[in-house]
Amino acid sequence: MNELDLFAAAIAIAVPTERDAQLDRECSGRPELRKRLDPLLDQHARAHHLLDRPNGADRNDETALMPGASLTGPDRVNCRALLGANMIGQKKYAEAEPLLVQAYEDSISLAKKESSSELLADFARYRAETVQRLVQLYDAWAKPAEAAKWRKELERNKK
Question: Which of 60, 80, 95, 106 has the greatest number of C-beta atoms within 10 Å?
């Protein structure tokens, strides 16, 4: 399973011990994958917990509502992009759009502040994946003009 498939499968398992057992099996021999998934799953749980509250209830910090807000660097970009992809899978296009657009924008702005070639490569990879997901989103949402705009961006990024 790839990272997105594992993320989607994990969030579908409600019992934490069962989810951990599944992740232990699937990530066996791939500790870097588990290391990337755990913070994403934590962010997902926190985001859904906050989003399930009535409007304004127990909200001390608006930034806490944005998935990935406490993550930094490429992990922030990847978290938002994976959550956006998950929303596409659930046909929640209006919820997916801001997550994916923010992931794309973060991939650019955060990369400008980075000097590590490894992290720059992560930003570039996540940016390309996010643009592909934006194309998917707008195709599924029947917004061909937006899909075409992101296809052009995808081609630009390939050069």
Answer: 80
Are 26 and 51 spatial neighbours (Cβ–Cβ below 8 Å)? no
Q: How far is CA 98 from CA 40, 46, 130, in A?
A: 17, 18, 12
φ and ψ at 60, to 5 degrees?
-95, -25
- Whose structure tokens read 């296009």? 93
Task: Give residues with Cβ within 8 angstroms of 22, minimum separation 6.
Answer: 9, 10, 13
- Cβ burial of 73 (10 Å; 0-12, 13-18, 19+) is middle
Residue 155: closest CA among 133, 136, 132: 132
Triad 61, 130, 2: Cα angle to 5°: 100
Give 69-99 pLDDT, tens digit per residue: 556 778 888 888 988 998 898 899 999 999 9
> Which tokens is 19 given?
């989810």
The mean pLDDT of the chain is 82
